[in-house]
């Protein structure tokens, strides 16, 4: 590939005295979500399907044993960006706390030194609302799917950013593919049918190759840094994905650097951490040193010097935050790995790299040394007061916010209850399939063993709400909120339960609380607009719509409800724009299509109205109202009796209300007499 040939030329040029002023290098940081090191070809995986990463490693330096400080995306990425552990930078889980900028990020340091900074990220856990955009001039976190941005979309946007301005630049590109659910695109779906996780990695590698070739500029030196944020258990230790445990399977990640000043084919032995990434990249680019870092520059090791012995730490707060379990934390020196839990663990990584034999004993000097070095746990980070639209997205990926527990509650060791994580996933699958009573039974079984399990409480409440057991749903949502009080998703759903029970005042109060927690959360705003409108408070509905627009909240449902109140207020042009926005966000939104049809009819545009109603009927095939509207226009305005009769007959086939069926039958008879 063009890029790899250029890397060699740049490396050779870097070894010669410059003929003139040497341009400052651009830097691209490529982060690989949920990527185990042992699933990459250059780390020993046969048939990995990673030629781009393998060629990059052969063109630069590969770190043989790099560990993440947390098997969680946001804390790990902030560790890369700041050179500090989660306990130092302050963000220790997804969706719980926001980075406050206390330590300048790599982006901020590059920007201060005159680099253009840009980022394209591909998952909601890295949205700018969590503060990780600090220092970036351009930060694109828009997704092209319900849970993530596709690899192809990420590559295309990253190349647009790189070409949009001057050099040098610092560009961060985040690929999300290997994250669960594993759904690789073709041809990787077929090629890796038996191992879709590997197929996701191979698909990501293909995009990385396109990215690197697209970034190739003969006149501009380029440093390329690739690192995984954490790995994936893939069933090891009873964990399907990641976040519960701190074993090597979810902590060991790939880490490769290539570009000017980096020897080709260098393999750096010894233990390193993702907190070393920032000081290393800064040193290679010639940035001033940071005032505060837990990591160390690895430039000398890249040059061939031996790494001094060290001990690095790791933790995962997710078990405590989501389930109320003990949070594992530990240390490794490369030979041994220690995990502090109610049942402590120690592993000899040389003899047992898969960590299958716990050798910890209370009297063992190795375990005692690690325990003393680990010290007391740091104070937990405070929760983010807003950002619950992101929490809704996180829930679709299996993440929830902190479960704040009573001090007297028993602390469960994740090893003893890891099966409950799978049980929660099964309950969610039951709920998604509409089997609400089975969902409730599954959640109840979990809660008998683990009463503080917030996901179980939440999915139970959602099933009760869907089953229209509103009073029971209210109690279950309130129980979940007692443990996770800043969950705007549960606040919104609690409001919906109150609305179902007929308590509009309490419903609107909960929706307002949800909006206060997350001003960008569109669902409670849409419900508040609709509720105000329904009880005749048009001015209140209009004010709520104006507030939503000012806050930047956006969804198809919100745009529809806004359009309805604008139309009621006689602002038809504004209403049309709102409905068109809804269709941009959701092209098959039946209500928006129907509302645009109604506006067209009011303006005498009968053909447009009929076409819009037909599109709405196709989008909502079980709703007879659009077909009835078509029939009415054809009868009353077009005098097309045969067409009207056909539309009413189609509506009759799906109409379930007896009174409406009778009216349709009468209309069909009347049309038959008129013909």
Structure, described:
The chain is an alpha/beta fold and 675 residues long. The protein has 30 helices and 13 strands. Strands 1, 2, 3, 4, 5, 6, 7, 8 and 9 form a nine-stranded mixed β-sheet that branches. A four-stranded antiparallel β-sheet has the order 10-11-12-13, with helices on one face. Strand 12 (336-340) and strand 13 form a beta hairpin. 55% of the residues are buried.
Mean pLDDT, to the nearest integer, reads: 91
SSE class? alpha/beta
Tell me how many strands there are.
Answer: 13
Question: What amount of the residues lies in strands?
Answer: 5-15%
- Apparent shape: globular
What radius of gyration results from the CA coordinates?
29 Å
Distance between the termini: 72 Å
Uncertain parts: 1-20, 381-391, 404-409
Assign a percent range to the helix content: 40-55%
Give me some keywords for this one:
nine-stranded mixed sheet, 13 strands, single chain, alpha/beta, four-stranded antiparallel sheet, 30 helices, disordered N terminus
Layout of secondary structure:
Elements: H1 2-14, E1 26-32, H2 51-58, E2 61-67, H3 73-82, H4 86-89, H5 106-112, E3 116-120, E4 138-140, H6 151-163, E5 169-175, H7 188-191, H8 196-214, E6 222-228, H9 248-251, E7 252-253, E8 255-258, E9 266-273, H10 277-285, H11 299-302, E10 312-315, H12 318-323, E11 329-332, E12 336-340, E13 345-348, H13 365-374, H14 388-396, H15 414-417, H16 419-432, H17 436-449, H18 454-466, H19 470-483, H20 488-500, H21 504-517, H22 522-534, H23 538-551, H24 556-568, H25 572-585, H26 590-602, H27 606-619, H28 625-636, H29 641-654, H30 658-674
Parallel strand pairs: 1-5, 1-6, 2-9, 3-4, 3-5
Antiparallel strand pairs: 2-7, 2-8, 6-8, 10-11, 11-12, 12-13
Helix pairs in contact: 6-8, 16-17, 16-18, 17-18, 18-19, 19-20, 20-21, 21-22, 22-23, 22-24, 23-24, 24-25, 24-26, 25-26, 26-27, 27-28, 28-29, 29-30
